[in-house]
Amino acid sequence: MRKNIVAGNWKMNKTLQEGIDLAKELKDVLAADKPNCEVLVCTPFIHLASVATILEESTVGVGAENCADKSSGAYTGEVSAAMVASTGAKYVILGHSERRAYYGETTGILKEKVKLALANGLTPIFCIGEVLTEREAGKQNEVVYTQLSESLFDLSVEDFSKIVLAYEPVWAIGTGKTATPGQAQEMHAYIRSVIAGKYGKEAAGNTSILYGGSCNPSNAKELFGNPDVDGGLIGGAALKVTDFKGVIDGFK
Ligand code: PEP
Fold first, then answer.
1. Which helix (H) or strand (E) holds 150?
2. What is d(CA 242, CA 78) in angstroms, rounded to the nearest whole number?
């Protein structure tokens, strides 16, 4: 059965000490009031080892926000999937729209990153989603299909079953503009049908598909109440424990 997951994406926020403080506070708050879903935080590389140590004995998982498309060597400034895994992190966000748009990450590059993440025991949280002009042109399904097929559909069914998907309409990320629950459900159901077509109904039913894009404590419950929405990838609202907890409580 698929899992309900709320994953934070800290992006390029928080100094090391601020990140440590946030992780400690989150750990305490969730120990006092247990979540009804899996919770994890994806942090900048420099936080990973410290945050993984803090959250080791808790139910909160840890992930990176990216990893390299090469396994090791002369790639100055890059961080490999093996290095991420060596910190204790278990997840890695791949294909976030900010990486695609600002750092030129193509579907081919992402395919390599996914393979390396899986080879190193990491669970990719693979992001897909259309920009506003694509939605306005009614091309959202086409865009998402291409993102899925070009980066993931070479995987075996066994490897595909290790992937978590995040549908993040780019027009909703950090804009305060959320997809309506109806728009989210419609796209998540489409994504699941595409997976069923490629890997079969069982695999599709077992894939967690998160929604991302201005999800907050006041809209989380309604979004997560949709049958094909299995949780959220949370940016801005993951930076304050009260907000993140409010989103997590969308499953209560
Ligand atoms: C994200 O960056 O994945 C995201 C969903 O951001 P926000 O929640 O701030 O829109």
1. helix 140-152
2. 33
112: confidence class by pLDDT, cuts 50, 70, 90: very high
Rounded mean pLDDT of 72-88? 98
Q: Which residues contact 39 (CB under 8 A, 6 or more apart)?
A: 5, 6, 7, 8, 26, 30, 59, 60, 61, 248
pTM for this model (two decimals): 0.97
- Contact predicate 244/43, CB 8 Å: no
Q: How far is the CA of 74 from the centre of ligand 1 (A)?
A: 32
Q: Which atom of ligand 1 is nearest to the CA of 216?
A: 8
Q: Is the separation of the CB atoms in 40 and 60 below 8 Å?
A: yes
Give the C-alpha separation, 35 to 29, whole Å.
Answer: 10
Does residue 196 have a pLDDT over 90? Answer: yes
| Residues near ligand 1 (Cβ within 6 A) | 9, 168, 173-174, 212-215, 233-237
Q: Ligand 1 mean position to 75 CA, how many Å?
A: 28
Helix (H), strand (E) at residue 93:
strand 91-94
- Smallest CA separation from ligand 1 atom 3, residue: 235
Ligand 1 pocket: which of 164, 215, 224 to mutate (most atoms <8 Å of CB)? 215
Count Cβ atoms below 10 Å from residue 9 Cβ, excluding itself: 26
Cα 181 to chain center, whole Å? 18
The residue contributing the CA closest to ligand 1 atom 1 is: 235
Ligand 1 centre distance from Cα of residue 43 (Å) = 13
Top CATH class of 5-251 equals alpha beta
